[in-house]
């Protein structure tokens, strides 16, 4: 059953919606400032290279690049060709990238041949290379963007968004208005541009609105504040809750009159961290709720409704048996119809929550599945658990999250924990790996034989 | 060359003051514990990139001077042990 009909959008949308603007208007600062004329030139050059490699309208490419000018220009070039671009987080292991490429079957993969930049760098200098993937297939849908979301069992979900979907999200930011950066202002983005908040909320919206996107030199408190201080224009910080914690810990921040606000996506920070931040910087601290499937969904950009949020213009939400659902005409999933995730025009968020009838205010009360957020990156604990349990030497495993990801494992008599850890290191990205390991003789189970995930019971098994 | 220097510094510290190294480790654990309201004994040996960003700020506030380690030094700071080592090399921490 097809979820709906996608109407392809003319590739000229890239020029009209993203690249248009005065030649000398600086639009990106990843180290060196890049103006629109320069960006158009770089995108045209990458378009030529991708075309020369064989990429065509309706074709498919995967970008496996760290945040960089190369990432931006290859993405825009692929869209300008009319091809579908899949984004693979550069932190994924070779094993995960291989699996993703097998699943998505892109015709080409753009990888980093050389990359400068080390720990805590917010962006990298990248020399990219285009590699043909012999088993690759052209895109079967009209999606412009494909992103992977880890699945609890079986293959990961591929989430597709058309150019129209992306334009609709950009328009939604514009419609939210107050609290969203305007043309002539700056966005200092701390959110990864490979994921929806940094990608659409930072990069694409910034290009569209003429708000300059600035990435700090390093992801340290000092470098972030220095990036804010570097220009006189009104500046918004875009990040995840960790960045609030980091900046709230600066005892005496410099005076930053240009800093007008900070907006974060993801879970709420604790009230005392929120208050400490507002007290230190004297600016608005806003919260956004969004998903890879749809982008920005609901906001509280002035902390006026905290802990509740208000649906963005054009977004309709309801709670169904305690789960938040969002009206969405077509299923966002590529090659998968899962009624537990999308049915009859409603996206099932898997977030517990409620919608207040009179005001429409929404409360999000946490996940109903095993997904957790590590510094804004989504990790599905059951994916880690399945991978771990499938390794040689492991008889059983439970992966839980308390203050960090923790693994409880039962090993076969001949196995060593070092080997098991090395096996997992090959298969899952660093941010998904357990930080604490407990080797136990047996895993506690319920009377019906199900594994127990309650941490007080698990710690008793140590 | 950088590596042999690092080893020499490490050996010198081991030979000199075991207690001092323990103290430096305690300081690192205490600084890391302030992130996420943990107890020092709850801090895992591995240090992730969020914790590293947090730690750098804590180091600068504690010692009142910038922590200008290069990419190579930062890349090594992936465990509590290697953090203690790098801090020692750069003259942060302990009595020295």
Automatic annotation (TrEMBL), chain A:
Superkingdom field: Bacteria
Task: Write the record's keywords in alphabetical order, separated by commas.
Answer: Ligase
Write down what this protein is called: Acyl--CoA ligase
What SUPFAM superfamilies does the entry give?
Acetyl-CoA synthetase-like
Which Gene Ontology terms cover its molecular function?
Answer: ligase activity
Occurrences of domain AMP-binding enzyme C-terminal (ranges): 383-450
- All copies of the AMP-dependent synthetase/ligase domain together span 48-303
Show the PANTHER family listed in the entry: LONG-CHAIN-FATTY-ACID--COA LIGASE, NONRIBOSOMAL PEPTIDE SYNTHASE PES1 (EUROFUNG)-RELATED
């Amino acid at each position: 059953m097809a979820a709906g009909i996608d109407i392809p959008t003319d590739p000229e949308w890239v020029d009209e919606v993203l690249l248009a603007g005065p030649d000398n208007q600086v639009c990106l600062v990843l180290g060196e400032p890049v103006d629109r004329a320069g960006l158009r030139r770089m995108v045209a050059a990458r378009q030529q290279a991708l075309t020369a490699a064989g990429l065509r309208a309706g074709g498919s490419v995967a970008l496996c690049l760290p945040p960089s000018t190369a990432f931006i220009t290859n993405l825009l070039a692929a869209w300008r060709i009319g091809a579908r671009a899949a984004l693979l987080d550069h932190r994924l292991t070779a094993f995960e990238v291989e699996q993703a490429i097998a699943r998505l079957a892109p015709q080409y993969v753009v990888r980093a041949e050389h990359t400068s930049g080390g720990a805590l760098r917010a962006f990298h200098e990248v020399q990219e290379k285009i590699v043909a993937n012999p088993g690759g297939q052209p895109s079967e849908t009209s999606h412009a963007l494909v992103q992977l979301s880890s699945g609890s069992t079986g293959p990961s979900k591929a989430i597709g968004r058309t150019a129209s979907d992306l334009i609709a999200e950009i328009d939604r930011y514009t419609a939210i208005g107050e609290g969203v950066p305007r043309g002539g202002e700056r966005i200092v983005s701390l959110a990864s541009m490979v994921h929806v908040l940094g990608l659409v909320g930072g990069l694409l919206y910034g290009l569209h609105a003429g708000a300059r996107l600035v990435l700090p030199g390093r992801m340290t408190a000092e470098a972030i504040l220095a990036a804010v201080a570097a220009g006189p224009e009104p500046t918004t910080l875009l990040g995840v809750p960790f960045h609030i914690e980091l900046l709230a810990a600066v005892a005496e921040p410099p005076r930053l009159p240009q800093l007008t606000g900070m907006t974060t996506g993801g879970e709420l920070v604790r009230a005392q961290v929120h208050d400490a931040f507002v007290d230190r910087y004297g600016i608005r601290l806003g919260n956004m709720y969004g998903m890879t499937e749809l982008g920005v969904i609901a906001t509280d950009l002035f902390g006026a409704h905290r802990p509740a949020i208000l649906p963005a213009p054009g977004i309709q939400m309801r709670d169904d048996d305690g789960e938040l659902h969002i009206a969405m005409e077509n299923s966002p999933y590529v090659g998968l119809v899962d009624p537990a995730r999308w049915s009859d025009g409603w996206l099932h968020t898997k977030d517990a929550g409620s919608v207040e009838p009179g005001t429409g205010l929404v409360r999000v009360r946490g996940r109903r599945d095993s997904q957790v957020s590590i510094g804004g990156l989504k990790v599905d604990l059951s994916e880690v658990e399945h991978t771990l349990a499938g390794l040689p030497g492991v008889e059983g495993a439970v992966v839980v999250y308390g203050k960090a990801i923790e693994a409880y494992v039962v090993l076969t008599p001949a196995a060593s924990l070092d080997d098991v850890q090395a096996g997992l290191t090959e298969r899952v990205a660093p941010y998904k790996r357990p930080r604490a390991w407990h080797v136990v003789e047996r895993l506690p189970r319920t009377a019906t034989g199900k594994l127990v995930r309650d941490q007080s019971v698990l710690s008793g098994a140590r | 060359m950088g590596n042999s220097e690092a080893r020499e510094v490490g050996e010198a510290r081991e030979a000199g003051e075991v207690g001092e190294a323990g103290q430096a480790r305690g300081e690192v654990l205490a600084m890391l514990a302030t992130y996420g309201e943990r107890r020092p004994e709850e801090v895992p040996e591995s240090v992730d990139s969020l914790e590293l960003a947090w730690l750098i700020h804590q180091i600068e506030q504690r010692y009142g001077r910038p922590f200008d380690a290069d990419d190579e030094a930062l890349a090594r700071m992936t465990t509590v042990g290697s953090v203690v080592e790098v801090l020692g090399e750069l003259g942060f921490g302990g009595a020295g």
